[in-house]
Design brief:
eight-stranded antiparallel beta sheet, elongated, single chain, 1 helix, mainly beta, 8 strands
Length: about 180
């Protein structure tokens, strides 16, 4: 039989446990957002006022139906499709203007395909997309940083694409930085 030899320590641990499990008083909870946010957050996000502005957070899952992705040199069109799960956080300043958006994307059941030949190439992808707005509230001033990895496998051949890296895109669409294979 187990015996606890330090009753003072046991009492302190039990008290701490009850303190952690007790409901949080309303005065400590985040405040509701009362100002308009620019740009407005998508409906799947839940927003809370915090000391330095507002934070909106949420997730969604959606399916990308087969659609043309790119054309090969011989003119054949390659299609893309998959299931995407996104976890999104938006940060707004005290004036209600967006300053940063972070999106974590996870692609599953994804594949590139050629409908003319029936050929498919399954792949997985995980991306972290961070947009920092140079002018709060103005997406056209955003610098976007994308990091992540993608792996494509062709049945019978194995992995044909293993990619990871970082890309930074300036507000005008030009590439500021690129690294990775």
């Amino acid at each position: 039989m187990f015996r606890f030899r330090h009753p003072v320590l046991l009492t302190a641990l039990v008290t701490a446990l009850f303190a952690v499990l007790a409901p949080v008083p309303a005065s400590f909870a985040a405040q509701q957002v009362t100002q308009s946010l620019t740009p407005p957050p998508p409906s799947f996000l839940t927003c809370k006022a915090v000391g330095n502005g507002t934070i909106c957070h949420g997730s969604r899952t959606f399916t990308i139906d087969p659609h043309p992705d790119f054309t090969c040199g011989d003119g054949e069109v390659i299609y893309d499709q998959g299931i995407i799960r996104q976890v999104v956080t938006r940060y707004y300043d005290t004036d209600g203007n967006l300053t940063q958006r972070v999106i974590h994307e996870f692609w599953s059941d994804a594949q590139k395909s050629n409908p003319l030949t029936g050929t498919t190439a399954p792949y997985s992808q995980a991306s972290n997309i961070t947009d920092v707005l140079g002018v709060p509230g103005d997406f056209s001033s955003a610098t976007e940083t994308v990091t992540g990895q993608g792996n494509m496998t062709i049945p019978g051949m194995g992995a044909v694409l293993l990619n990871a890296g970082r890309t930074v895109t300036a507000p005008d669409g030009s590439i500021d930085f690129r690294a990775g294979p």
